[in-house]
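To whoever picks this up:

The parser on our side crashed when reading a file containing two proteins. I've narrowed it down to the boundary between the first structure block and the second sequence. Both blocks are reproduced below exactly, byte for byte. First block:
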Amino acid sequence: MLELPDELRNEMWQKVRRAIEEYSRELEHLRVAPPSDPRPVRRLLEDVDFSRPMSVGEALDRVLEGLRHHQVHNGHPRYFGLFNPATSTMSVAADALAAAFNPQLAAWTHAPFACEVERLLIRELGVKFGYPRELVGGSFTTGGAEANHTALLMALVRHFPRFVEDGVRSLPAQPTLYVSSESHHSFSKAARLCGLGTSAVRQVEVDESFVMDPEALRALVRDDRKAGRHPLFAVATLGTTGAGLVDPVDAIAHVGHEEGLWVHADAAWGGAAILVPELRPLLQGVERADSITFDAHKWLAVPMGAGMFFTRHPELLEEVFGVVAGYMPRAGEGIDVREPHRSSMQWTRRFIGLKLFLTLLVAGFDGYATMIREMVRLGDVLRERLTDGGWDIVNRTRLPVVCFCDRRAPGTEAVRAISDAVVESGDAWTSVTLVGGRIPALRACVTNFHTREIDLDFLLRCLSEARRRVLESIS
């Protein structure tokens, strides 16, 4: 049963195809999120017995019921949550093709087409970020966390060449990382995984707009140096997870390089702004960063995960990741190729880049620009209608992340109660955040190409009803 007979395989594919098409048509009529109750899910699974296999149809029905009714549908037009977009048609086809052909990208000779496609994408997106074409290096990753970890490893090897052989024992002083309070917590994980510990992560003061203050960065670096630490790595976040804020990467790069730091731009979500000419100035100076994180699965409408890592120091990749393994196939002498297992964290991995490649072949960069431009417009419309409805906007960004609250219902508990009521209704999905680490706010992000103005109106009605109930409960 691992290789189904022709007739049964055709029936299976027809059923899968129908299910995907039906899901696409039905999506906006489903609950955005399921009730927070594990019992129905466990009932669906309680009679599973792997010693008694099911029929193909029964197995598919079981999985389809679970997927349809027991998950947050982040492709729903009224999902205003985290950076989990609806997926393009071509990217869904690409993931199926990648699974069927199953190329192995550890060695170039095993998958020349796949390796060259990903090299092309890294180069073309790197050029969009402003890197000189001849300097662009990098790789596809499982996500932004791997890309951020890669950047920290490269900084360590650049500063401490013995780190590759001797690890943390070779460090003459405690390296320090500099992030804002709004940065992604994957940097704390990266510090742990590199053996530095979370105490190495230093939070730099933010200004009144909650973005990193470059002069505060300079002062903290100099204080740490005087205290015997080794300032190593500064992060500019270009589109923070909580509030969509954009750190001044140009100024941070200026300070960082003057102080001898590796400067990293975490553009996992907001980096897509480079594809829209009128938004490109938001990222001014990103080309000065030593490395960049970008996630195609956040704003470019492809399935998870499709992280990307870029660097303007490609020669350092093999110094960090290069190993010699006699069992690995090698390209012939004189062939200009980069072996993926020698230039990235992963070894065995799938063809991650195909979903972006196929979508770009059909939509092009202009298609993506049109999509992003419309989402930014909808973000502006949402801010205006929230303000008209008596809500206070508490973040300032041109990107379509809107953080808001009502002064009559202050505090984390009231904000969370409003968001919980919206989510539990099944009609829309919002989240909560602490803007600047101290202002409780509701958060709505437009990151879905299915979303329309009518969906914004629906969200506003849900919010108003939830607010009314919360205000009644505290009056």
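<<boundary where parser fails>>
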Amino acid sequence: MKAGLYTRVSSERQAKKDLSIPAQLKALRGYASKRGWEIVYEFVEEAESARTAKRPAFQEMIALAKQKKKPFDVILVWKLSRFARNLEDSVIYKALLERRGIQLISINEQIDDSPAGKLLAGMIAVVDEFYSNNLAQDVKRGMREAVQRGFFYGGPVPIGYRVVKTKDGQRERSHLEIDEADAPVVKRAFGLYLAGNSIRKIAKTLNQEGFKSPRGSHWGRSAVGAILHNETYIGNLVWNRGNDIERRPNSHPALVSRKDFERVQQILKARSSYYIHPRRVGSRFLLSGLVYCGHCGARMNGSSAKHGRYRYYVCTTYSNQGASACKAKLTPKNKLEGTVIDGVREQILTEKHLRELTELVNEELQQGQETYQEELVRIEAHLAKARKGLSKWYAVIEDGELDTS
């Protein structure tokens, strides 16, 4: 018998316990070895929650299970909670495996295929889903409480701040404190924007002035934009999960005045492309976003100069971060697009390729027509059968053999 092993941990903390990937694999391999089963696949999922089926290794396993020739006869898991914590996912994917003749075995939960065993498996799935949902609520409640009390709840620390640990009873809590080494870059970014500079210009200026970015690389538009939108810099601590928003004002020292921050938000909103009519944001560049810089590999987008008289393709790294980040030159629009169009015409739109394409399209249309005709015949047969049944009922009613009172 061929076996596939599926292992999963949802966090580093869980991995340090007896549910670690190596521990699961060792137990599953031992289980298969004692029964003489051949292990053909090992699916490993690290730092992935079972509340959703959108897990890479899980989806790979299911895709293999769907193949015409099944690659394994059984899937072994440490516990059913490793397979799924969502009741709907558990039912759907276990049913899919059963239809393919693939058995799902939990080596720590003795469940057979009897009605009682299936009932037990369903109860375990319900309990697992309840545990998962309850744990998620506890985590959200704890994070919300931490924010209400002014403690930093985790995640990336905004540039300009650092995390300091403090005692809160028996626990250690985190709060934000100004990092004097990086705070100037935040103040500089807000000052430049209020002075009328674009986000792109600010990124170039910060690079030229030698300011360090959050990741230690060159400044770009997205990094500058993240600073300008971040309420943290006026002393607000914001926790946001979907529709749940918790805001704690004055939880830590501010780097920007509330007046300046609100003015920046007004300008950002006014300049946002969301508020510009679509006719004003269309592109006249055929290859915008489709070609890449030969120096750094970034996308190249269209740009113009002299009120649109001259048009170029420019590397986005060069455009957003300046010449210190990429040495690419401006490429004239007509030259680049002309070269690409000539290449397409000479190498792709040949008489041979067009003939093959026409034949392929005709073949697809023919197959579609045949499928349509087959479906039409099937539907008409069902209608004929239904009409025949109705005719019998009409006859019964007309002959008075059916009491309709």
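After patching the parser it read the second block fine. Residues 351-398 form the longest helix (48 residues). The two ends are 63 Å apart (CA to CA).
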